[in-house]
Specification:
- The protein has 129 residues and is α+β, with helices and mostly antiparallel strands.
- Helices cover 19% and strands 23% of the residues.
- It is built from three helices and eight strands.
- The longest helix is centred in the middle third of the chain and has 12 residues.
- The radius of gyration is 14 Å and the shape is globular.
């Protein structure tokens, strides 16, 4: 049986709730942040497991851009300070480039997001299903 590399990561609901809590009150979510979906760990493509394993191990990563700060310019993920999010490539079989698939991690709340469409949409990875 394969165990998720981030088994200690908090669940999807807790991560979203934590991201929305500010000083003990619930902040109003932006329409973009509310559009973040959810995906079960078991529903990820197999290459995403490889990427998550590399993140857990600290590399080495296949592309020099892996581990760089993700700016969240699209505003889809919950708003955080610069440097909070980092991006990693999920290999796309048959692609001669990095492709469109990524894992974006958030450090403080230790959440992981998957995008298959180069940041047009995100799904919070749920390790509990």
């Amino acid at each position: 049986m394969r165990f998720p590399p981030r088994i200690t990561r908090i669940g999807a609901a807790a991560a979203v709730l934590s991201a929305l809590l500010v000083g003990g009150t619930v902040a109003t979510a932006t329409p973009a942040a509310a559009a973040v979906g959810s995906i079960c760990y078991s529903d990820l493509p197999s290459q995403a497991y490889d990427t998550l394993d590399l993140i857990e191990q600290g590399g080495p990563f296949p592309f020099e851009q892996d581990g760089t700060v993700f700016q969240n310019r699209e505003g889809i993920l919950p708003s955080q300070s610069s440097g909070y999010y980092h991006e990693y490539t999920v290999i796309t079989p048959g692609s001669s480039t990095r492709g469109a698939r990524r894992i974006v991690t958030g450090e403080e709340y230790q959440e992981d997001y998957y995008t298959a469409d180069h940041y047009e949409s995100f799904d919070l990875i749920n390790y509990g299903c």
